[in-house]
Specification:
This protein is of the alpha/beta class and 292 residues long. Helix content is 36%, strand content 20%. The protein is built from nine helices and eleven strands. This is Xanthine dehydrogenase accessory protein XdhC.
Amino acid sequence: MNVVANSWHAQLHRLQQAGLPHALATQVTGAGSTPREPGARMVITATETFDTLGGGHFEWQVIEAARQRLGDNQAGISLETFALGGRSGQCCGGFVNVLIEVFSGAATRLAVFGAGNVGRELVRLASPLNWRIQWFDERDELFPGWEREQPRLSRHDLADPEAAVASLNPGSHALVMTHDHGLDRALVDALLRRGDCASIGLIGSQSKWASFRSRLRATGHGEQALAQVRCPIGAAPDGRKPSDKTPYAIALVSLAELVHLVADGADNQAGNDTYRGLAPQRLRAVFPPTHS
């Protein structure tokens, strides 16, 4: 086994780069006889652990606490105290405080349908963002190749649009920009029937959307559902379209529009609570003042 590759810091870097959910557990204090010293760390995912805080029932409790928070999508930090002889069922006789930092991973998921000129520019611009991107096209030769090196980016076949849409995670943002109007319409139809997309954008003109809208309405989609679709994408707040029609310019304004949508969604989920970190009384209990 490659010890360096499986160390907590190597795995933390990998998981952060990939935008995958994980937790970092750090022993911050210790008193009496303890399995490890302060500063010991381990990384925990839903199915794996890397490095150790000393093993035994105490470590099992740390893992369980971290996985419960991961399962509940409770991003943030918590401070846990373990008495090694009471709560932890060990005979060391000391106690440790463990800081558990939970990272829920890349919360934003983007599905891009189409690897044409605009699709390639848009994915290239979006790839540095902390988003998980799924990129679909049935023409394998159009994928540029550099996407294979991007840890949060995956490419997928689009031979079956229904299956492609079904593979998305709930709450994904979707951009439809294929080479075929019939395929675009089938994708928008399937995305609307899912009913759980964070946003749906369609490349094209107002006349294209008017035609799509009429056909989608005829298949049973109501006005409330149809209002979810943005077309054309990348329009200014007053409805003006960019005068520069190059693929790069269209991709740029479309991504800027999407960044605002993602930020608005994050703000709505976060609420108005601006408090961050551990409660002061918990910190004082763990780290009493050394002088008055």
